[in-house]
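Sample intake sheet
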Amino acid sequence: MKVARVVDLSLAVDGDTQVFPGDPKVRLDVACTIAQDGFNILSVAMGSQSGTNCDAPYHFLDSGARIDEMDLRLFAGPGVIVDVRHRNDREPITAVDVRPYVDRLTTGTIVLFNTGWSKHYWTQRYFDHPFLGEDACQLLLQQGVLTVGLDVMNIDETPDDEHPGAGWPCHRLIAEAGGVVVENLSHLDEVDFEDPFISVMPLRLTGADGAPTRAVAMQLL
């Protein structure tokens, strides 16, 4: 077996990283330089949900596993990319969208939803993304899927003054199942090969609710 191709599904992490409203902003500062210290070191400050990131159950469940306690098999496996680019602003992805893929879904499958919304990154419209409906989430869990990702900032509807949201139902369902949510994916359109192998390995942040990840899709031969 060899890796024929790798598609980077991650957003860049820097001072311009768009974060969930109220989350800490990313700050990267030069701490040491070759000229002054003989080596380069960067000081990094950010929230645990910055950039492309994985949520552990602890993010929405006090008794849930922290990111460093989770089975690493949840972060790598065969992928199924569900095309939902027909969904519009603040429109739920439903079980109807998932059912055509059900025969490919099983325990260990990583399901990624391609909404096409990453093209709105760095704009206000990025906050008005489609989101996973509760019925679709339940169908995935019934099939044994425990790792679910999207190319938007929130698996649930992102609330604002006009849209209060529904209380994070999919975050809570997946947390209670001991699963993983992956958000802020990108470049899903570039995965144009069959049966991608997905890796979303997070940083091992002790006791954290989540962590940034370098998400990739690999074509294996």
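Comment: The chain has a mean pLDDT of 97. The chain has one domain: 3-12+48-220.
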